[in-house]
Amino acid sequence: MGQFRDRMDEELRIRGYSTSTRECYVRCVRNFVRHFMRPPDQLTLEHIRQYQLHLTRERHVAWTYFNQVVCALRFFYREVLKTDWEVRHIPYQKTGRKLPEILSPEEVAALFKATGNLKHRTLLMTMYSGGLRASEVTRLRVSDIDRQRSVIRIEQGKGRQDRYVMLSP
């Protein structure tokens, strides 16, 4: 899979995919190829279908991983191998919907109180009040907080997107 892996990584880089996405896509395609022990250009839509059945019946993978594999295979066969068959015929799995677990005000207060370090407590409170991801709060700078307008500027968050979030009192 060496030349195909290199070509896929190049195509992903050209399109600006993140490092983690590139690694994930390459890993998904590599696992697919290893499953059949044949070069990827010799595999067809029917092989992909069989692999999808393998993922659901034998490995019992989560729908998120299943759809990552679909995205990786679609990209690989459309952009790298430029196959003549329609990659849209590779189906996604239905997504699962779970309601988030909501903490009571007492549980939130207990969480903050249990954190002895002032810096850690401040980070937790900022994350909770603004709905920030851990990676976003670790990159915050004092200049990102606008106390006048009560907003926090998040630079290059998920998907390399900038955004503002409300600063809770």
Strand-pairing-aware structural class? mainly alpha
- First-last Cα distance: 55 Å
Number of helix segments? 7
- Give the helix proportion (percent range): 40-55%
Strand content: 5-15%
**Integer average pLDDT:** 90
Uncertain segments of ≥5 residues (pLDDT<50)? none
Total number of strands: 3
User: For the report, how would you describe the main beta sheet?
Assistant: 3 strands, antiparallel
Question: Strand order of the main beta sheet, please?
Answer: 1-2-3
Order of helices and strands: HHHHHHHEEE
How large, in whole angstroms, is the Cα Rg?
A: 22 Å
| Shape label | elongated
What is the quaternary state of this protein? single chain
Reconstruct the topology from this structure.
Elements: H1 2-14, H2 19-36, H3 45-57, H4 63-80, H5 105-114, H6 118-130, H7 134-138, E1 145-146, E2 151-154, E3 163-166
Antiparallel strand pairs: 1-2, 2-3
Task: Tell me what the structure shows.
The relative contact order is 0.08. It contains seven helices and three strands. Strands 1-2-3 form a three-stranded antiparallel sheet, with no helix packed on it. The mean pLDDT is 90. Helices cover 53% and strands 6% of the residues. With 169 residues, the chain is mainly alpha-helical. A hairpin with an 8-residue loop joins strand 2 and strand 3.
